[in-house]
Amino acid sequence: MAHIVGIAEIVLWTADKERALRFYRDLLGLELISPPTLRNAFLKAGEGAAGIPAMIVLVPKGNDVLSQPSGYQLHHLALALPPEAFDAQREALVAAGYTPRGGKHPVLASRTMYVNDPDGNEVEFICSAPAE
User: Which domain does 107 fall in, by range?
Assistant: First the structure.
């Protein structure tokens, strides 16, 4: 059952949001697509797949993350699904023993769900359909 059509987001912790923006936005030329007042910075990193732009998201580290060993950078990984495959993917996850968690994307009108992989990494599934 292969419904994944691309990577929607790579979400990275940052100790200094402005410094990270200077790198991703100013040096690499990624377009900031979230409001500047939003805590997290969403940068467009390409056209992506299934109607979802490819994004790099910068999340400021809180004190709990700052206390982690260096190298603790990945927040979560998001995989794009076509809208017609979203429910089938949820059913497959449930059948495999996972309990998908819902969520609301702060920038996109979409459906999202999250599970932790066997190593504890958070994986988001997202499609370009109105949120339920």
Answer: 6-127
Rounded CA separation 78/7 (Å): 6
81 three-state secondary structure = coil
Number of domains in the chain: 1
Condensed to tens digits (0 to 9), the pLDDT of residues 24-39 reads 999 888 999 999 899 9
In a domain, 82, yes or no: yes
Poorest-pLDDT segment among 42-46, 88-92, 98-102, 104-108: 104-108
**C-alpha–C-alpha distance, residues 5 and 117, integer Å:** 19
Q: Is residue 1 part of a domain?
A: no
Domain membership of residue 99 (yes or no) is: yes
Is 24 part of a structural domain of the chain? yes
First to last CA, the chain: 24
pTM of the model: 0.71
Q: By three-state DSSP, how is residue 90 classified?
A: helix
Closest Cα partner for 10 from 61, 71, 80?
80
CATH classification of the domain holding 84: 3.10.180.10
Of the CA atoms within 13 Å of residue 42, those in its CB half-sphere come to: 15
